[in-house]
Amino acid sequence: MSATLLSMAFLPAEYPGVWTLTAPAPFADETSCQCQAPHEKLTIAQARLGTPVDRPVRVYADGIFDLFHSGHARALMQAKTLFPNSYLLVGVCSDDLTHKFKGFTVMNEAERYEALRHCRYVDEVIRDAPWTLTPEFLEKHKIDFVAHDDIPYSSAGSDDVYKHIKEAGMFVPTQRTEGISTSDIITRIVRDYDVYARRNLQRGYTAKELNVSFINEKKYRFQNQVDKMKEKVKNVEERSKEFVNRVEEKSHDLIQKWEEKSREFIGNFLELFGPDGAWKQMFQERSSRMLQALSPKQSPVSSPTRSRSPSRSPSPTFSWLPIKTSPPSSPKAASASISSMSEGDEDEK
Fold first, then answer.
1. Domain ranges of the chain
2. Fewer CB atoms < 10 Å away: N or C end of the chain?
3. What share of the chain is helix, strand, coil (3-state, %, to 5)?
């Protein structure tokens, strides 16, 4: 706790408003009016100037404050900040008065009293506040001004229960917060009754506590089971989508890698087996080597001839050159040539 809060926590009783910073606001019947100075009647102009200096301006705001919400808190904030130096008293009507003039409440009076005690803008809570303010009540609590929204509040046989306060010059208007009210909250619950009944059944409340019939209880529990199954299916669908997305990402990566490897393979193949590839050059080299190995070497022209033995007669040499002969012009010429060839063979013998 800071030094400022510590100093506020131990201030004397002349400054009861600071207790709201460190503790709940006190009840009016557990304390007495702390203002010791004479209670002189003030005008709104005087109060806005911060006078009187010796005491705060006592502002009163009342209401039912059922299901205490932000609209209530904003109204009390406005009442608290109407004047530079103010002390906010909040009156809360009892269950009997509320049920008689307005209707049934969700929270009982003890719960509503306690809710107001813990609002930061409240300096003091008045339990069992009157429905219509009387001069005796205003004098008892030394109230300078009454804060409420300016809409006429017709109730208890009156067109406006604040009419006499306005005529006395003690009324200070505040603004309502649109879109939020106790009636709006109750309307939401009534409109979505099945949803909230199922919600509380699921959280462990019994059908008797919820005033739910046997048939409706079974219906609500069945609907809860159906909702659970829907939620499971939804989760499975989401997980399936995530799995499919991961597979698609991985397949995309695999396709990219496959394309890169394919390009690399094709490039290497062309480099090796293409028109100007290394394989062609290697094949040409090997084929030239094989041709050299298979073809005989030519003997030199000036190689020495072998000496022939004198005893051996030289082997006849045959001429492989073809002899060109002209065809015989007549049968007689053909027979003459044949006879000459036979004679030649006899001579050789």
1. 44-180, 183-281
2. C
3. 50, 10, 40
| pLDDT for position 99 | 95
The pLDDT assigned to 21 comes to 67
> CA separation (Å) from 48 to 122, 165, 184, 282?
19, 19, 35, 109
**Looking at residue 32, what is its pLDDT?**
60
Tell how far CA 88 is from the center of its chain.
Answer: 44
Of 250 and 204, the structure prediction assigns the larger pLDDT to 204
Task: Determine the CATH number of domain 44-180.
Answer: 3.40.50.620
Cβ atoms of residues 68 and 94 within 8 Å: no
Name 60's bridge partners. Answer: 89, 146
Mean pLDDT of 74-95: 96
Considering only CA atoms, which of 165, 175, 207, 179 is closest in space to residue 44? 165
Q: Going by C-beta distance under 8 Å and a sequence separation of 6 or more, which residues neighbour residue 130?
A: 91, 93, 97, 137
Residue written as token pair 């806005």? 48
Closest to 97 in 3D by CA, of 67, 133, 73: 133
C-alpha–C-alpha distance, residues 122 and 87, integer Å: 8
What does the pLDDT look like over 85-128, one tens digit per residue?
A: 999 999 999 999 999 999 999 999 999 999 999 999 999 999 99
Question: What predicted TM-score, i.e. pTM, was given to this entire model?
Answer: 0.60
Q: Phi/psi zone of residue 5: left (φ > 0), alpha (ψ -120 to 50 degrees), beta?
A: alpha
DSSP state of 125: E
Cβ within 8 Å of residue 92, ≥6 positions away: 62, 63, 64, 65, 109, 112, 113, 116, 125, 126, 127, 128, 129
Angle at 130 between CA 126 and CA 135, to 5 degrees: 100
Q: What is the DSSP-derived secondary structure letter of residue 88?
A: E
Give the mean model confidence (pLDDT) for residues 22-36.
75
Q: Among 68, 66, 90, which residue's Cα sits nearest to residue 78?
A: 90
